[in-house]
């Protein structure tokens, strides 16, 4: 029924109940209890790790037994870790955080705790019994304990929230039935439970000359709506409105402000847009940021330092192999050892990627033809080099000069790039970071021949996931998977 009827029947307490929430309503107390248990588990892990590290160091290195000397210190470290995690709302935000953000917040908490702990024992002059090695051992063990505890609880809580076994938030929707149905269906996948939905109440434009243009008058039906929402004890109320109804939605939000809930206004038709946007300060104004640069200046510096360190170490370790492969290529087939091919790099700027020559031709630009299975252009040695990815090793020099990164979206030949950029709208977003020797798509099996548009779309999806979720831990994970994941060798020919 429409809320217009409340104007003539103010005593009515009827509402249109939503049936889109489905399932069993689990109170937020269960989620709160699980978060308390998760924080308690981390406290226990940290205390045990700090104490065990100190005791093992003394027994194995110093060959003495400190007995209970480190119990109080270990409990202090665990308590500070708990207080920092609670104070920064790290566990309460697990509902809306990706895994790497949750883990990195734990790393920063450990760093803060030990910085404070070392400063405290130094200022109080009680550091005589503490060796630097003991503190380092405790720091490493506590860091591993925090990462372990958080990884375990994230893997338990997130699937439960996503499947609806635990409600992350209880929400009331206000708007057109078709809009509330669509919003509820999209939200349920993140554990947001729709407990009621209401039609948008009626408003009347103010006729007084003293009111500002567009002002609306709050009618009794709005008061009834507020009264109906009060006993529901929701976490959030979401108002779904059209562009023309924004003034009325703001007036309704003002009326709902007397309830102890978060009130949201979502313009209908912009849900997809707002899903990727963030409200952010920009000078002295506030804007809706739709996309952001994937890496901050600090993250770019961190990634660059990682690239240089690993590239230098890698070139030193594989230099004998590089020499042997170069000799083998000269003996196997006529032609140069190295092959330089134009690709698109960061910001779509052209670069020349260096590879070991594995074919009898050196096609480039518009003359490029992708390699297919049993391609006669591939040399005998080239089959081995391509299958083992050894042909990519010279790209470590591209990494050193800054044209490439160790990890990133793999660069395609320029002709492929231009063709797929016309067919896939977000294809060029892959160039918002430097291309990589290995990437998230490759370690998940998306490499080799691209004979359908769907294969490239899946590859782009994995590349964009990497760009939007970059972290140094993800780079390390991809490097490890490059050596040990069987999917890396799929479609390598």
Report on the architecture of this protein:
By secondary structure, the protein is an alpha/beta fold. It has three domains: 3-25 and 167-289, Rossmann fold, CATH 3.40.50; 28-163, no CATH class; 297-489, no CATH class. Helices cover 49% and strands 12% of the residues. The chain contains 15 helices and twelve strands. Helix 2 crosses helix 3 and helix 3 (99-123) packs antiparallel against helix 4 (132-163). The termini are far apart.
Protein topology:
Layout: H1 28-62, H2 71-87, H3 99-123, H4 132-163, E1 169-174, H5 177-187, E2 192-198, E3 204-205, E4 216-217, H6 220-229, E5 236-241, H7 246-256, E6 262-267, H8 271-275, E7 278-282, E8 285-289, H9 297-332, E9 338-344, E10 350-356, H10 380-388, H11 395-400, E11 405-407, H12 414-423, E12 436-438, H13 440-443, H14 453-468, H15 472-484
Parallel strand pairs: 1-2, 1-5, 5-6, 11-12
Antiparallel strand pairs: 3-4, 7-8, 9-10
Helix pairs in contact: 1-2, 1-4, 2-3, 3-4
Number of domains: 3
Order of helices and strands: HHHHEHEEEHEHEHEEHEEHHEHEHHH
Query: What structural category characterises the helix and strand content?
Result: alpha/beta
Poorly predicted segments: 1-27, 207-216
Shape: flat
State the major sheet.
4 strands, parallel
User: What topology, given as strand order, has the largest sheet?
Assistant: 2-1-5-6
- Mean of residue pLDDT values: 80
Question: What is the distance, rounded to the nearest whole angstrom, between the alpha carbons of the first and last residues?
Answer: 64 Å
Helicity range: 40-55%
Count every helix, treating DSSP H or I runs of 4 or more residues as helices.
15
Gyration radius from CA atoms, angstroms: 30 Å
**How much of the polypeptide forms β-strand, as a percent range?**
5-15%
Number of strands: 12
């Amino acid at each position: 029924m429409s809320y217009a009827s409340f104007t003539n029947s103010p005593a009515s307490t009827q509402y249109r109940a939503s049936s889109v929430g489905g399932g069993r309503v689990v109170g937020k107390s269960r989620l709160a209890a699980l978060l308390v248990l998760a924080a308690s588990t981390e406290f226990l892990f940290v205390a045990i790790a700090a104490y065990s590290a100190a005791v093992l160091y003394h027994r194995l290195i110093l060959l003495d037994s400190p007995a209970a000397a480190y119990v109080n210190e270990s409990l202090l470290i665990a308590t500070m870790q708990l207080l920092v995690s609670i104070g920064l709302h790290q566990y309460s935000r697990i509902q809306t955080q990706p895994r790497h953000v949750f883990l990195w917040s734990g790393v920063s908490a450990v760093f803060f705790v030990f910085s404070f702990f070392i400063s405290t024992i130094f200022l109080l002059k009680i550091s005589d019994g503490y060796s630097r090695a003991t503190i380092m051992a405790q720091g490493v063990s506590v860091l591993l304990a925090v990462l372990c505890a958080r990884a375990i609880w994230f893997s338990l809580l997130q699937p439960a929230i996503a499947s609806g076994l635990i409600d992350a938030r209880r929400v009331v929707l206000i708007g057109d039935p078709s809009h509330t149905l669509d919003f509820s269906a999209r939200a349920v996948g993140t554990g947001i439970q729709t407990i009621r939905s209401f039609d948008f109440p009626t408003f009347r434009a103010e006729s007084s000359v003293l009111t500002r243009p567009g002002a609306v008058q709050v009618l009794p039906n709005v008061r009834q709506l507020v009264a109906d929402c009060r006993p529901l004890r929701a976490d959030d109320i979401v108002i779904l409105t059209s562009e023309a109804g924004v003034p009325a939605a703001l007036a309704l939000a003002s009326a709902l402000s007397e309830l102890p809930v978060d009130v949201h206004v979502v313009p209908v038709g912009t849900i997809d847009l707002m899903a990727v946007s963030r409200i952010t300060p920009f000078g002295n104004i506030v804007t809706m940021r739709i996309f952001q640069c994937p890496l901050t200046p600090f993250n770019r510096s961190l990634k660059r330092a990682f690239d240089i360190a690993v590239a230098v170490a890698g070139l030193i370790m594989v230099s004998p192999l590089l020499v042997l492969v170069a000799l083998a290529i000269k003996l196997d087939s006529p032609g140069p050892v190295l092959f330089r091919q134009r690709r698109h790099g960061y910001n779509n700027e052209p670069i020349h990627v260096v590879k070991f020559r594995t074919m009898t031709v050196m096609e480039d630009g518009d003359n490029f033809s992708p390699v297919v299975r049993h391609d006669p252009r591939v040399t005998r040695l080239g089959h081995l080099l391509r299958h083992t990815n050894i042909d990519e090793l010279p790209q470590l020099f591209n990494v050193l000069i800054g044209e490439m990164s160790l990890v990133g979206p793999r660069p395609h030949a320029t002709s492929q790039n231009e063709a797929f950029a016309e067919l896939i709208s977000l294809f060029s977003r892959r160039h918002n970071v430097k291309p990589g020797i290995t990437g998230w798509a490759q370690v998940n099996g998306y490499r080799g021949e691209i004979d359908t548009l769907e294969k490239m779309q899946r590859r782009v999806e994995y590349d964009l996931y990497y760009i939007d979720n970059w972290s140094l831990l993800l780079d390390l994970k991809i490097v490890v998977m490059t050596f040990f994941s069987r999917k890396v060798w799929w479609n390598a020919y």
